[in-house]
Amino acid sequence: MAAKAHPDVPAGVKVIGVIAMAIGLVQIVGGLLMIIFNGDVEGYSSSGAVVFGIITLLVGAIYVWAGRGLLNDDPAALVFCLFVSALKIAYDVIWLIVLGLDGIGVGTLIALIINIIVFAVLWRARGAFGLDEGAGAGGAGAPGGAAPA
């Protein structure tokens, strides 16, 4: 049976899902390469390269799961991505406060801006995933368009 298309997933969420899957696939390949070539990884012992390769594989698998979930209208994937984005925003803000822009360069500032955009896109899309409590009568959050009594 063919996979069900989800035209109600907003385009921005689809883009984030595809990017997440691409990042996950790159991490999976990188993790595999670290495990296979563990004796040749500069800066790591053989066992350290294997451990870091396994962790990289797991993180890559999580990215692929989250990306597929976003593309397939999975509310759990949306909540997970919102949570991770919010944590990353908080982390970047704390580093900016502690070290200032001069202490960390503009990389963290750019990452912060990107994470705010990702969070905003995902937050706005929560209605398409059935998570918008404020949808009211007939809105995206009301099953079957039922109005409250």
Salient structural properties:
flat, 149 residues, mainly alpha
What average pLDDT do the residues reach? 83
Q: How many structural domains does the protein architecture include?
A: 1
- Roughly how many Å apart are the termini? 39 Å
Strand content: under 5%
Q: How many strands appear in the DSSP assignment?
A: 0
Helix count from the secondary structure assignment? 4
What is the H/E string?
HHHH
The chain-level structural class is mainly alpha
Biggest beta-sheet profile: none
Helical coverage, percent range: 55-70%
What is the radius of gyration computed over CA atoms, rounded to a whole number of angstroms?
19 Å
Shape: flat
Low-confidence spans: pLDDT under 50, at least 5 residues? Answer: 135-149
Explain this structure to me?
By secondary structure, this protein is mainly α. It has one domain. The protein has 4 helices and no strands. The chain is flat, with a radius of gyration of 19 Å. The model is unreliable at 135-149 (pLDDT under 50).
What's the helix and strand layout?
Elements: H1 11-36, H2 46-71, H3 75-104, H4 107-124
Helix pairs in contact: 1-2, 2-3, 3-4
